[in-house]
Amino acid sequence: MTSLMSRRALFAAGGAALTVALAACTSEDPLAKQANAGDNKNYIAGDGSVSEYGAADRKDPVDFTGTLFDGATVNAADYRGKVAVLNFWYAACAPCRIEAPDLQALYTEFKADGVEFLGVNVRDEKATAEAFERTFELGYPSVVDKDGGVLLAMTKYVPPSSVPTTLVLDKKGRVSARVLGVAEKGTLKALITSALAES
């Protein structure tokens, strides 16, 4: 009897220790947090931070080349002389779905001002990406970036595990602002307006 009680106590203590250990791991691991939440297990969300870079603090113009889903080739030089918005996304990313209508609305609003929007799809096959674009009636194109070429070229600004991320490029092709996580419409509008106002 004493032996059975000792074993039960030992088992209970071991279980408690395991629970504490797992809780400690979970608190440090963002992917584990999302797994425990039961949703969006396949991405690590950005922290929602917004960074705006003054003209004197901006780095060199970005450089990338990509292929659109329609087969056309684009590169960073195509956007020089204009303000451009680059949005890194994929179809199964829940925050990407949240922000898609606002991105489309801002694209429509700023089109007449010459602002260019470009999606960078980091994961999907063509059919999946096009279904997403139809669902949200996106009017701007996206690059196929399953091989990570564009993402790799932008790693100074876009953490590989943080999707969505949105960049605003100034007219010289430099990053003037970055949003990690969902791009709130009002915030992104202000960032675009600020870039447009620069000479």
From TrEMBL:
Keywords: Cytochrome c-type biogenesis, Disulfide bond, Redox-active center, Signal, Signal-anchor, Transmembrane. Residues 1-23 form the signal peptide. The keyword ATP-binding does not apply. It is found in: Cell envelope. Residues 55-197 form the Thioredoxin domain. Its main location: other. CDD domains: TlpA_like_family. This is Peroxiredoxin. It comes from Arthrobacter stackebrandtii.
